[in-house]
Amino acid sequence: EVQLVESGGDLVQPGGSLRLSCEASGFTFSSYGMNWVRQAPGKGLEWVSHITSSGTIHHADFVKGRFTISRDNAKNSLYLQMNSLTDEDTAVYYCARAASSSLNCFENWGQGTQVTVSS
Amino acid sequence: EIVLTQSPGFQSVTPKEKVTITCRASQSIGNSLHWYQQKPYQSPKLLIKYASQSFSGVPSRFSGSGYGTDFTLTINSLEVEDAATYYCHQSSSLPWTFGQGTKVEIK
């Protein structure tokens, strides 16, 4: 069974940093593209970042160099380093697995981790 | 950026009714359109991938169609457990985008 477990969400002050983690199990992690998707309170879904199985990275424009996605295949883990956080980054952040290395629908999702940016 | 526009934004439906949700893309995306269901306080779940392919384990009352710019999610014979918000998502070109969501309420 595919499992994705996010962690690292917290309350942080504006301008602060956080590192989110997603631990994967139940599949060959290194073979799949992975994503971060977020959802602000009462709002819809918003794609944040993608990393392919080979390590190619794509970010949404609003990231503006503040966030970095990475992966450690040896640890079956996905990360999102978030810097220069603003209140607009307050959201639940989901880790989502792509269908394959080249098919980019989100077949599996974690339970999410809450990031709150507030002074 | 490709904009996805869903309609309606909200629908109140009686059980066993048929539900149709549309998603229109601002430019052609082929069949790279996917549908998700999100129930309150839960993570989204994939229902339909690549416009019309049902994801494993999804009840057969859910179906999808469309190509290019116009897509439809159909729920035949709505059940109480289908109360949720439904989102479309395109993976044709970066940045990947979602529709704004359609909330389906049970009357």
In short:
The complex is a heterodimer of chains A (119) and B (107). With 119 residues, chain A is mainly β. Chain A is 0% helix and 50% strand.
Keywords for this entry:
heterodimer; A: mainly beta; four-stranded antiparallel β-sheet; 0% helix; globular; B: 107 residues
What does this structure look like?
- The complex is a heterodimer of chains A (119) and B (107).
- In chain A, strand 4 and strand 5 form a beta hairpin.
- Chain A is mainly beta and 119 residues long.
- In chain A, strands 2, 4, 5, 6, 9, 10 and 11 form a seven-stranded mixed β-sheet that branches. Chain A has a four-stranded antiparallel β-sheet with strand order 1-3-8-7, with no helix packed on it.
- Chain A is 0% helix and 50% strand.
- Chain B has strands spanning 4-7, 10-13, 19-25, 33-38, 45-49, 53-54, 62-67, 70-75, 84-90, 97-98, 102-106.
- In chain B, a hairpin with a 3-residue loop joins strand 5 (45-49) and strand 6 (53-54).
- Chain B starts with a strand and ends with a strand.
- Chain A binds chain B through residues 37, 44-47, 50, 58, 60-61, 94, 99, 103-112, and chain B through 1, 32, 34, 36, 38, 43-46, 49-50, 55, 87, 89, 91, 94-101.
